[in-house]
Specification:
The strands form 3 sheets. The protein has a 7-stranded mixed beta sheet with strand order 2-1-3-4-5-6-7, sandwiched between helices. Helix content is about 40%, strand content about 15%. The C terminus is likely disordered. It is of the alpha/beta class. The protein is built from 19 helices and 15 strands. Helix 1 packs across helix 8. It has 2 domains: about 160 residues, Rossmann fold; about 250 residues, TIM Barrel, CATH 3.20.20.70. The longest helix is centred in the C-terminal third of the chain and has 18 residues.
Length: about 500
C-alpha cells in the first residue's frame, strides 16, 4: 500500500513538533520526528511511503499537491498541532477533494480533540490518538484488508458506516521501543535532502534528533507531549541499541554537528544515562550530543555526560516563584537547587539552554520580574522567554478554562500574524498582550547585557564549532529584540482548486 506522511505547509519555518509549536525568533526548524517514527514503522510492514516535510522543503500547498500527485497515495496521514489545526484541516480538505483517498491526522491536537476535528472537517476520515506508530500501522492493515473490523484498532477515531463518529481509546503505550525502526534511517532515506535545513538555535548544526525513551515521570501541568502522546511512564530503549544508532548516524550524516536526545526528560532515569555514556566511552565513539534535562542532575553524572560527549542541556527553569512552581507541579520548588545545578553544569563545562515561562497560575507582575532576575542570575548560555501556551489535552488548559483565564478558544489566536508565540491566557491585571510584551522585554534585557555579549563574542572567536550557531542565532534574534509581537491576523491558507 502507498501512504503519504505529510508535515503540511503553513507558516515558513513553522515547527509542529515543538513543545510550543510556532515560528521561532532564532530560526529554529524542528525535524518532524514523531511523523517520521510512524512513517518508518509503517514502511517496515512492506508498504511504500512518501514522507514530505513542506516547511523544510519550502513547499507551498500547490507544490505539496504536485509531489503527492506524482506518488499517487492510497492514504494520507498529516501531522497537526493546535496553532496550525485550522490550516491543517483545510489542507486535509484539499487533498481529499483532489485525490479522493482516505485522510488521517496525528499529533498532539489530533489526540486531544479527535472528535472535534472530525466534526470540524467532513473530509477528514481518521484521527490517530496518542502514539501513532502502531495505530497508523493497524489503520494501514485495515485498509489493506488484513484487519476486518476498524473497531478493533485502539487509539483511533473514525466515521462509522452510518456516518456517525466513533472512537476506540488508546491502548497501552509501546513498551518495547527497540522494535520501532531507527528514525535516523527514515530521515536518511526520505529527508536527507533537507538534512541541513533543520536548525536548532541552541545546538551545533546540522543535527539529528532521536529518542532514547518516551514518556516523562514528571507532571508539569503545561507540557503537552507527555499529556497527549507519550504518557507519564518513562520507557527506555536498550542503551546498546541507542549507541548502535549513534554509530549509524555518524557514518551516514556527514558534517554532523551533534545529536539531540529529544526525550521529554533524558535525565529522568540516571542509570539509563550512565549506561549510554559508558557504552559511548567503551566504544571510544567521538560524537557530540545534547539533551533535555531537569535541574536535579547530580554533579557526578554531569561530569560523566561531558566525558561521553554531551555538550548542552535544555532545562525548563520556568519561574523563580516557589508558589508558581508548585501550582504547575514542576516538582522542583527550591530555586537554590537549580542554581546549584547550574553551577555544577558550568564546572563540568556543559552549556545550558534555559527555558522561562510567564503567565502560569499565580503569576503577577512581581513574580515575572523575579523570574527575569532569576534568569540573569542563572545566566545560561542561551535562554528563551515565552508566555504560557495552554494546549487542549493539558491540565493547564483545563485550569485556564476553570479560572476564566482563557481569553479565546479560537485556534487562530495561539500565534500572532507572523507565526510567533501569542498566548490566549490572561492573569488578573496581566492581559495576554502584557505577557507577550514582558517576554519581549525580558529577551532584550537578558541578551543585551554587556557581560553576556562579551562572553558570546569570545566563544564565537575561540570556538569554530560554536561560531555559526552564535552568528546565525544572533543575526535572527536581533531582528526581533526591538519588535512588538502579538498582533493577530488570520493564518488559514486557501485550499487549491481541482484545476490546480
Amino acid at each position: 500500500m502507498r501512504i503519504t506522511f505529510l508535515n503540511p505547509p503553513f507558516h515558513p519555518m513553522f515547527s509542529r513538533e515543538s513543545r510550543s509549536p510556532c515560528v521561532t525568533k532564532s530560526s529554529t526548524l524542528y525535524w518532524p520526528m514523531f511523523l517520521s517514527y510512524a512513517a518508518g514503522n509503517v514502511e517496515a510492514d512492506q508498504n511504500e511511503i512518501q514522507l514530505i516535510d513542506s516547511p523544510a522543503m519550502d513547499l507551498d500547498l500547490e507544490a505539496t499537491v504536485a509531489k503527492i500527485r506524482d506518488f499517487s497515495p492510497e492514504l494520507i496521514i498529516c501531522s497537526t498541532s493546535t496553532p496550525s489545526i485550522l490550516n491543517d484541516l483545510q489542507v486535509v480538505k484539499a487533498l481529499k477533494v483532489l485525490f479522493g483517498v482516505p485522510t488521517a491526522i496525528m499529533g498532539t491536537h489530533a489526540t486531544a480533540e479527535p472528535l472535534e476535528c472530525l466534526k470540524m472537517e467532513p473530509n477528514l476520515d481518521y484521527c490517530i490518538i496518542g502514539e501513532a506508530d502502531h495505530t497508523a500501522l493497524q489503520l494501514v492493515r485495515y485498509l489493506r484488508g488484513d484487519i476486518q473490523s476498524i473497531h478493533s484498532i485502539a487509539g483511533l477515531a473514525f466515521r462509522d458506516k452510518d456516518g456517525s463518529i466513533d472512537f476506540q481509546p488508546e491502548g497501552p503505550k509501546i513498551e518495547n521501543l527497540d522494535e520501532i525502526p531507527w528514525v535516523s534511517k527514515t530521515y536518511y532515506k526520505h529527508l536527507f535532502s533537507c538534512y541541513k535545513r533543520y536548525f536548532y538555535g541552541a545546538n551545533i548544526n546540522p543535527l539529528i534528533v532521536i529518542l532514547t525513551g518516551r514518556g516523562c515521570p514528571h507532571r508539569c501541568s503545561y507540557c503537552v507531549i507527555p499529556q497527549t502522546l507519550n504518557g507519564h511512564t518513562y520507557r527506555t530503549r536498550n542503551p546498546i541499541d541507542v549507541v548502535d544508532e549513534l554509530e549509524y548516524i555518524q557514518e551516514h550524516f556527514k558534517d554532523l554537528g551533534e545529536v539531540f536526545f529529544e526525550d521529554d526528560t533524558f535525565t529522568a532515569n540516571h542509570d539509563h544515562v550512565k549506561q549510554i555514556c559508558n557504552i559511548i566511552l567503551e566504544r571510544e565513539l567521538k560524537i557530540t550530543w545534547s539533551c533535555n534535562a531537569r535541574a536535579d542532575v547530580p554533579a557526578s553524572l554531569l561530569q560523566l555526560m561531558k566525558k561521553a560527549g554531551c555538550r548542552e542541556m535544555c532545562v525548563g527553569f520556568e519561574s523563580a516563584s516557589p508558589d508558581v512552581l508548585q501550582n504547575i507541579h514542576k516538582g522542583i520548588k527550591n530555586t537554590e537547587k537549580a542554581i546549584e545545578f547550574s553551577k555544577n553544569a558550568k564546572k563540568a563545562h556543559l552549556l545550558v539552554h534555559g527555558c522561562f515561562m510567564v503567565g502560569n497560575l499565580g503569576d503577577t507582575q512581581e513574580t515575572l520580574e523575579m523570574t527575569l532576575e532569576y534568569a540573569k542570575k542563572l545566566n545560561p548560555n542561551t535562554a528563551q522567554f515565552y508566555p504560557i501556551m495552554a494546549y487542549p489535552g493539558t491540565e493547564a488548559y483545563k485550569e485556564a478554562i476553570e479560572n476564566g483565564a482563557l481569553e479565546s478558544k479560537d485556534y487562530n489566536q495561539w500565534l500572532d500574524k507572523d507565526g510567533f508565540h501569542r498566548t490566549t491566557i490572561r492573569r488578573g491585571k496581566l492581559s495576554s498582550q502584557d505577557l507577550v510584551d514582558f517576554c519581549d522585554r525580558a529577551r532584550r534585557e537578558f541578551y543585551l547585557r554587556p557581560s553576556y555579549m562579551l562572553t558570546q563574542a569570545k566563544m564565537a572567536l575561540c570556538n569554530s564549532r560554536e561560531r555559526y550557531r552564535i552568528l546565525r542565532g544572533f543575526g535572527t534574534l536581533v531582528k526581533h529584540l526591538f519588535r512588538k509581537h502579538g498582533e493577530l491576523k488570520s493564518t488559514v491558507r486557501q485550499a487549491p482548486t481541482e484545476k490546480q
